[in-house]
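worker-03 picked up job from queue 'complexes'. Input manifest follows; two sequence lines, order preserved.
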Amino acid sequence: MKDKEILSVEKYRSDIYQALSSCYNPPEKGISDVLKRLEAGLCATGSNAVSQVVVMRSELNTGVTVDDLKIQFAKLFIGPYQLLAPPFGSIYLDGKHQIMGDSTLDVVKRYSAAGLTVDESFKNPPDHISAELEFMHVLIIEELNCLHKGCADEAVAWLVKQLEFLDSHLGQWIDAFTGLTIQKTQLPYFKYLAIATRQFIKEEMQWLGETMADWHARSETMAG
Amino acid sequence: MDREKKVRKSLMKDFLGNINLSRRSFIKASATTGAAVAAGSGLSFELKALAASTGAKGNGMGQWLPATCQGCTSWCSKQVYIVDGRAVKVRGNPHSKVNMGAGCPRSHLALQQLYDPDRIKSPMKRTNPKKGREEDPKFVPVSWDEALDTIADKIMELRNNNETHKYMLMRGRYSYMRDVLYDRMTKIIGSPNNISHSSLCAEAEKFGPFYTEGIWSYRQYDVLNAHYVLLWGADPLAANRQVSYYSKVWGDVVDKATIAIVEPRLSASAGKADEWLPIKPGQDGALAVAISHVILAEGLWYKPFVGDFKDGNNLFIAGQTVDEEAFEELHTNGIVKYWNLELKDKTPDWASEITGIPAEQIYRVAKGFGLAAPHAISWLGGGPCMQVRGGYTAMAVHALNGIVGAVDNVGGTLKANKEYTSKFPKPDDFMDDIAKKGKKHEKIDQRGRLHIPCLKSGKPGGAVITNNSADGILNDDPYEIKVAIGYMNNFSFSAPQPERWERALSKIPFLVHITTNASEFSWFADIVLPDTHHMFEKWGYVKAIGNGYRHVTLMQPIVKNVWDYKIDETEIPWLLAEKLAERGFDNLLRHYKTYKDPETGKEPSSDKEFALYSLKYATQQLWDPAKYKGGDKFDGWEAFRKTGVWNSDPYPFRKRWGKMKTKTGKFEFYSETLKAALEKHAENHGVGVDEVMKATHYLARGERAFIPHYEEPYILGDEKEYPFIHVDHKSRLNREGRSANCTWYYDFKDLDPGDETWDDVAKINPLDAKKFGIQSGDRIKISSPTGSLFCTAKLWEGVRPGSVAKCYGQGHWAYGRLASKKFGKEARGGSSNDLIPAQYEALSGSSAYYAVTRIKIEKV
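worker-03 finished. Artifact:
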């Protein structure tokens, strides 16, 4: 029974990452469904970010159109003029306001180590926030698959990869990125998206950190 | 919420606690987890950004791949170090005999341009129908399909309404694949309006060489064999052309030759010269004719080229006319006429008063230059001739090369070597009646009207007059422009008096802009299409000359594209041709399908294939051994592609003496070629040549219209209100822009003499500054009769009193995070073009940038 509950919770985690990843693609008509999934996941995992998503959904019901979202999304994350909130890790981690920095190559290596590459149809740098969120989604799915198969040791290894990735990449720049988004957006929708993203990533880092610390402590005891 | 969190934590803790997992088995597990995606797993992913890896992983090892730099118009062959698909560093291509492995600062800036987060990432569509500088375009991303469908619909509307002439293509920076988009597409659609940027670039500079020796082109200079190099507003260590080559050899040139430079400000090259002649802006023609006077009066002309007096006595005596019969000319035409009509009274004393250069210095430079004949170069830059009355200065400066026999000679001035690229297939068979009729209309730039003869290569109305197109559009004269495409251009920044372009572009109902960074031009566009970067992402080629060679250097896609761009000159027109074919007009697509792969004979079936095949087609004679005609020999396309550059045979000196492409076949001091062109233009308008002179702001009347001569400069603004003459100049870090969003541009801005890092300064002589109470660091407003800008004052002895020098390049109000101070609102620095009026050297069509306006300065 407990195993089933774990599988369920982990599936929600993976759903949240996937939904958040979608939120950082140009808004389309199906955005309401994405937000519903996001809200459900955050509710099920007990995230404090859920309240922000509730507000985002209400924004959609109060006259903000998908076209409005698209215009604001472009200004924040695409351009074509100066990006108000560049959604690329290297901008924040390499300190040169350039894409494709050393940190980007490290992201590619981590994707590769997990058997992944950037899809040909994905026309953005590998450290675009939607790719990094999707990577987390994959890492959790892999963990789930191991759990399904009863390969607990491999599941733990995937958990470690999740923590390492957040610690080295997304978790390192999420504050700066969401800070810019909050500061620059003229639509509250993106402010709440940024707060929700930041809140969730912080919770994830804390939860994964504590969980792995517990496991490490126990491993040390067993080894001793 | 807290309850769920606690439950979740406890669940995982319990789970992990129950795992009998040793550290050793965990390490083993860690090592195997990577294969999971590729091996397949129970739960499936819904991936958008990522995919299972099937290809080879990067190994971190780099390689140097061939490329081409278009940071300016030197067009150097390059190599780029690529690691795992990422460009890391740049160096000169050692295989080029033109730039010989050398580089300059611009090429490195390309790396920052490539990975600029402000680049256009996908096609964008304007959602705000209102246009204007104050109107936010509200761009949203769209698919390539949607963007191209929209453009094709607009073109079809013109075709269906028999008004294809209302289509316009504006060309900025180009490769020699240009004709695919610029020429063939425009013609087959049915418009006369392929408008290039060339007259913003240098047409007046080509005017001098053409109407003396018949080459409408840039020259190269045999500096390593020269004994005297006399530079006129040219700054080869900093700007245009072959900066890398000249930078590499200049140390030797300094050792071997005397270098003198005529320029109102101390340029990078002036800093290395033996003589600096800080001339009053606009007076170059006076100096050129005075130097010519001295050389003739001193008997220093090069007799094996020009000829001599029949009795051997020099009759060129100041103030005296000479009997033409007394002189026997060899390879030139009209030396005595030139003396009689212009030179005989133009002594150093006369020129000194006009130019502000001491007579002794004029005499010293003239004599030194003459004594060095024929290994003496008179090197014409844009400054002396891109002026309202600069056409005859261009001739006078270039005529010096004729006088000293430096033309086509060792240690002299040379034309381009032969190369063997091919033109694309002709469009004629694909132009239907609509297209043929449409193309017959007058062009929107109004070239060829009485006041703008634009006499390219001897043909009235032959040259573009780019900046005048704005007026054509604004006044619907000769008609309205309804659909326009611009590529790699930014006329609303790079053309003088750019506010006119802002209004003109706002007026065009449907405007498309293809470019790498959204600019002041894109601001007015309905569709913005992301372009590839010339150095890393594009198939193409360019040609350049220097060091006695010509090279053809390839542009290749050598990095992994990060965003969703396409090649401006090939992929985009192909995709548009497909869209037009879907709408029942397949002429363009059928035409493009004739650009077959020379290796396989296969016709292109996609944009990618078209981009590659068309390049192979154009360059086949360089790489196909069966078609070999000269220069470097390759054993096939792959060998050429890997080397990245083809070199011509060495320069054949003196082959053109007596066979120049002028009316007389000779070097013309009395230009029968110009006479014919002017008379033809006058005849077209039913007037005499004197009326043409008057209409084009020239003072010459009668025979003087056909010889090089001095004309008082035509400078806008009253001296009392506007006490300074504006001196525009170019940076070492750009020539045409596109550096303004790079940090290195600002970090290294002090590479331009007198300039400061992270600032945009106007350089003012301390003597002038004292009179006006201005100090370095003061924020100032500079105004001309047609506009103003804000920048910082810099007191600098390197600028002539009475003039103020300011570098072109900054002052963007759009273009990116760095380029503007407050995006869309406040420019970083000021753009010279906001001061410069829209004036022309009308005989060539060239925009006038130099000695064209007076300015005033106010502290703010």
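worker-03 released lock.
Chain B is about 30% helix and 20% strand.
The radius of gyration of chain B is 29 Å.
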